[in-house]
Structure formats: structure tokens, C-alpha cells
Amino acid sequence: MSKSLPYSVKDVHYDNAKFRHRSFFKVITQTLFTSDMKRECVSCSTGKFLGLFMIFGLACLMLTHANKTPSVTDGLSKGLGTNEEQKVVTDVGVRFKKLLRRAPRLPPRLSGNEKVSSGIFTGKPNEHDEEKWKARQRNVKEAFTHAWSGYKKFAMGFDELLPLSMQGFDGLGGLGATVVDSLDTAMIMGLEEVVSEAGSWIESNLLERISQKGDVNLFETTIRVLGGLLSAYHLSGGDQDMNLANTGPKPTIYLEIAKNLADRLLSAFTSSPTPIPYSDVLLKNSSAHPASNLLSSTSEVSTLQLEFNYLSAISGDPKYKTEGMKVFAHFKTLPKVEGLVPIYVSPHSGEFIGQEIRLGSRGDSYYEYLIKVWLQLRSIQDGNFTYLYDMYEEAMRGVRHLLVQKTIPNELVFVGELPGGSKGSFSPKMDHLVCFLPGTLALGATKGITKEKAMKDNLLTVEDFENLKLAEDLAKTCFEMYSVTSTGLAPEIAYFHTKDFYEDGLGGGNQSSEYVNDIIIKFNDRHNLLRPETVESLFVLYRITQDPKYREWGWQIFQSFEKYTKVDSGGYTSLNDVTTLPPQRRDKMETFFLGETLKYLYLLFGDSSVIPLDKFVFNTEAHPFPIKDAIYLEGGSNMMKGTV
Ligand code: DMJ
Questions:
Q1: Number of domains in the chain
Q2: Is residue 17 one of the residues assigned to a domain?
Q3: CB neighbourhood size of 196 (10 A)
Q4: HEC states along 346-379?
Q5: Which H or E element spans position 168?
């Protein structure tokens, strides 16, 4: 099993032509020698020709260093258009105008000794280092085995394990969520026994559960259960018409169950009077209803599309994609605050409700899916979904302008909230959930390739650099939210010391941290649910910057999980208070500890060619889907094209 995964990963052929940089010198010379100018030049004397050629050469040099924003964005979002020469001429015109209007802003250049501070790491790790990381990766695999063994012993078939009371609990509608959330992690780790146990349970039980169970949340069921099934389908060879798994059911079993589940989930869309789906579904009779406050969360309704799009691609049925993408098409039309959106939306009116804006709970993965769905669909579209990229870019500008501040005294960068209403205009508060953002920003900047390659190929715009810088600064803050506590584990929510806000005596407990006065942790926010967001971002940033500090930070976090959350009888547990020793424990192992946290740590310490970020997109629950064009075109018989 451990072998079959990299085969499937490496076999993916990815045509990256639309993202390839085209030398501007080539563009100019091609234009010269294929246009009328060519004929005129030929009739000139040699002297005049050489003179003209030098002037154009000079212009080329100047233009190569001019601000690249428009052409890169065009190139990424629209691909190489049908009338290539026309586009080239337009680009030339735009560049000349820009040159006349303002001084060019040069992308940063790297000199030898700037390499480290620019976050580019080209040196190959030595053998000793490699051995060290392999050993650490084995530690994560053992942690996963320990987590699974506790679940299997005490809670097999329940949604979650309560590791202290050694029993199962159905907190997510009773579909055995831990089994499905864990399966692709086991595949990636090459744990055949777990793949067999989880796969067999799914094959024998899941369809029956789906047809008999009651209320489930549309979002949670999509990201964890549907997402887990789809990723298992791919990793076991499904969309390559192969069975790569040495054990467990045939890939088509996962697909059949996924379709059955998604057909029922679709009722959330079809029962709603607007494109905004209801939040809850009654699986057994395929009906849906709104939450008790009649509202849907913005992040929930916009975090279904990667899954529904991929299902449409592999099943050949466009209905999933059609319904899911209506949400984004609708959001595109709604008023926003510099690209930022309120955290509630009404399925009855289709309007945003309230003024609360945050990138934490109920807001987070709206921003994540804007860029990820664009990455998923960009290579097979004729620019139909460029609006997603534009919405993402505008939102990130809004984040940088309205939400980013620095702490006192040590200038940690954080992303605050706009509480709306009478509560004032800015709150220096950040959910741990916001720590997904560094990874998303880095991914959005390089589109999954390394920063080194993106810079070498001149693919980064000034905004990409700004987003990458924010990603790195914010990742540091997220890491310090761990380091500042007595346990080395982050609280659920942190506040930050600013000129307008400070509360004494609410430090994290680690007096040796230089950030004890920057980070404030209120009593009610001191719990830790084994969440993945920080290690997710460390993984993405390591892949993109190749900076080993992200691995070291991940290793420190992993050791704290081992020390304070491991339960001897099996499993890991959430904590009630990360600031006191020994920490009080909470008795719950969330499914995402196996689905996300341990998966990202394992990938962070492993070989970067496994699940490469320019060929896969991770759903918000860390289930990877391929973004190879052919799957969407062939598998979906072209139905992926422009349904919305
Ligand atoms: C997961 O279910 C997903 O990552 C979701 O987007 C946010 N919350 C949890 C993990 O913290």
C-alpha cells in the first residue's frame, strides 16, 4: 500500500502550460517577425534595421522589469487564449502605458546572502537530516496507529471516540465519521491493516446508515464523509480505472456510496427557495431544513464545491457541480466590504445577514474555497470561473487593509475581526481556525509550486509577494500561540495586546516565551480540540518556501500533543486548559485529528513529491482530490464546462 500511493501520485500528468512564463523577449521578437513591421524592416538599410533593433531591444529590457501584475493575472486566470497574438499585442500596449504612468515596482531579487531572509532554501538537506525526518514521520505514523487503536477498541462505528470514558459517541449524525475521515490518512501512511478495517466497515455498514439516519449537517457531512469517500476513491485508483489498494473494497464501492450520500445531500439545495442551501438534511427521507435561527453559515454553504465538483467529474453527472457552483455565482452578485463577507446568509432571501466579519468560525473556508475551487477548475475552463480568483484577490486585499494589525510589544502580525453592530469597528481577537490562512495565502500566491520556482519563472505579482509575506508572518503568530502556553498547545481563541486593548494576568503560562505580553488568553478560550489549522499551514509553507523552520515548528507541536493529549488506553484527547500543568482533559477525540492533524504532520515530515500541491487540492478536511485536467474532461464527459 505504501508503494501504490506514490505511483498514483506520480502517474498524474499535469499540463502546466497555462501557468508557464513566456519570455517577453521571445514575445517581442515573435511579434516583430510575424507582423507588418517585419516587412518594413526588411526593406530598410542594414544600418536603419540595426538601429531599430537596438531601440526595441532596450524597450524589451525595460519592459521585462516592469510590473508584471496584469499579464500574470491574465495568464493564470484566462490561460492562453485563442487569439494569442492579439493578447501579446494587448499586453505590449498595457505595459507601455504602465511604463509611462508610473515607475515600475520591481519584484524582489535575491542575492546570495539574501537567500535565507527571503525564505528561499535551495540547499539539499543532508543525509542525517533526512534520517531525522524519516524517524519523526514514523513517530507520527505510530501516533495515528495509537489513535486508531483506541477508536477501534472502544468506538468502532461511532462518529467519535471519548477516550477517557472509553466509549463511542455520535456527534455528527451517526455515519461513523472517524472511520471515513481516517481512511485516506491510513492509505497515505501505507497502513494496510487500518485501510482494510476502515474499508470493510464502510463497505458493510455505511449505505445502511445513510439510508436510516436522521439529521446531519450538510457541511460537516460533505467535508468529512463525502470528502473522505472521494479521496479514498482516488487514492485506491478509482479514476485511473485501477485498483491500487492491496486491501479494502474496490474503488467503485466508495464512489457508489458517495453518490448515494450526495443525492440525499442535494435536497439542501433543491428545497431552498434561493441558491443558498439549508444547513441540515434528514438523510433517511432526503429532506432538508434550515437551522433553528433560520440562517446558514457563510463558510458552510461555500465549502461544498470542491467535493461536489469532483463527484460530478468522476460520476459523469453534472448535477452536483451545478447546484454547488450556484452558491458562488450568487455570492458574486452580493455587496461586500472590500471583498469580505458577513458570517451569516439567509437561505430564504439569499442576502447576507448582520455585519460580523471574521476569518474564524463561520467565515474561514469561504476564503479557502474561493482560491481552491478556482485552482480545481481553472485549467478546464475558458475563464468562466475567473471571478473566483478575482473575489479571492479582492478579499485578501480587504484582509490586509481592514483586519491585519501588529501586537505590542513584539509586533506579531494577526488577523482580527469586525464584530459589527455597536461593538466597535475592530476586535483584536483571532480563532485558532484563522491559522488555515497562512497556508491558503501561500497556495494562492504560487499556485502550489515552490516560491523558488515561481520567482525563477517570474510568476509572482506584487500582490502575491504581499500575500506570501503575510502568510509567513501569520504562521509565526500561529506557532507562537502554541509556544506561549505551558503545554505548548494553542488555545481555541487568542486576543492580542494592541494600543487599544490589553488585559493583565491572562498570559499563556510559559514565562520563557518572549510573547507572554503580546498574546492574551481569556478563561473561556483555553481549550484545545486537537485542531489542524496551524500544522496545515506549516505543511503548505514548508512545501512552498522549503524553509526547514516550518518542520521544526511542526515537530515541537507534535511533541506537545504526544506529551499532553495521548491517552494510555488508546486515542488522544482534547484539553480544557492549555495554560496550566498538568492540563485538565476533556474526553473527546475529534475526527479531524486523524483526518487532518496527523495527516498534515506526516506529510510535513515526508517527501515533498507525495501529493504535490500543484497537482492536488486538499478539501477543508484535508482530503486530497486530483486537479488533473483529464479527470474533469474525460470522467465528466465535458459536463464540467460552464454549467453556471
Ligand atoms: C475541520 O472540520 C475543518 O478543517 C473545517 O474547515 C474547520 N474545522 C475543523 C478543524 O478545526
A1: 1
A2: no
A3: 17
A4: CCCCCCEECCCECCCCCCHHHHHHHHHHHHHHHH
A5: strand 167-169
What is d(CA 392, CA 328) in angstroms, rounded to the nearest whole number? 12
Within-domain flag for 37: no
297 CB within 6 A, ligand 1: no
Answer for the pair 151, 589: CB distance below 8 angstroms, yes or no. Answer: yes
DSSP string, 542-610: HHHH--THHHHHHHHHHHHHHHHHB-TTSSB--BS-TTSSSPPB---B-HHIIIIIHHHHHHHTS-TTS
Q: Please state the length of the chain.
A: 644
Contact between residue 599 and residue 185 where contact means Cβ atoms under 8 Å apart? yes
Active site residue 463: no
How does pLDDT run across 453-492, given as a tens digit for each residue? 999 999 999 999 999 999 999 999 999 999 999 999 999 9
* Residue among 588, 589, 619, 621 to mutate when testing ligand 1 (max atoms within 8 A of CB): 621
Looking at this protein, which amino acid is placed at residue 549? K
The helix (H) or strand (E) run that includes residue 228 is: helix 227-235
pLDDT score at 431: 98
Quote the radius of gyration of the chain (alpha carbons, Å).
25
Yes or no: say if 563 and 575 are a contact pair by the CB < 8 Å rule.
Answer: no
Is 620 flagged in the annotation as binding?
yes
Q: Is 220 a catalytic residue?
A: yes
Question: Residue for cell digits 504535490?
Answer: 612
Backbone angles phi, psi at 564, to 5 degrees: -115, -10
- Dist CA 407 CA 495 (whole Å): 10
What confidence tens digit (pLDDT) does each residue in 539-591 have?
Answer: 999 999 999 999 999 999 999 999 999 999 999 999 999 999 999 999 999 99
- Residue 596 lies in domain: 127-623
CATH at residue 340: 1.50.10.10
Examine residue 615 and state whether it is found in any structural domain, yes or no: yes
- Known catalytic membership, residue 492: yes
Q: What is the rounded distance in angstroms from the CA atom of residue 216 to the CA atom of residue 549?
A: 40
Beta-ladder partners of 418: 357
- Amino acid (one-letter) located at 141: K
Between CA 605 and CA 363 the distance in angstroms is 30
The CB-side HSE value for 495 (13 A sphere, CA atoms) comes to 20
Location of C-alpha cell 508557464: 20
Query: Is 633 inside any structural domain?
Result: no
With vertex at residue 537, the alpha carbon angle to CA 531 and CA 543, rounded to the nearest 5 degrees, is: 140
Q: Is 536 one of the catalytic residues?
A: no
CB of 298 sitting under 6 A from ligand 1: no
pLDDT tens-digit map of 381-402: 666 899 999 999 999 999 999 9
Q: Does 240 or 298 have the greater pLDDT score? A: 298
DSSP 72-98: HHHHHHH-S-S-HHHHHHHHHHHHHHH
| CA angle, 583 then 588 then 590, to 5° | 115
**Residues sharing a CB contact under 8 Å with residue 640, sequence separation 6 or more, in sequence order:** 309, 312, 313, 318, 321, 377, 380, 381, 632, 633
Catalytic residue among 74, 323, 364, 614: 364
User: What are the cell numbers at 581?
Assistant: 500543568
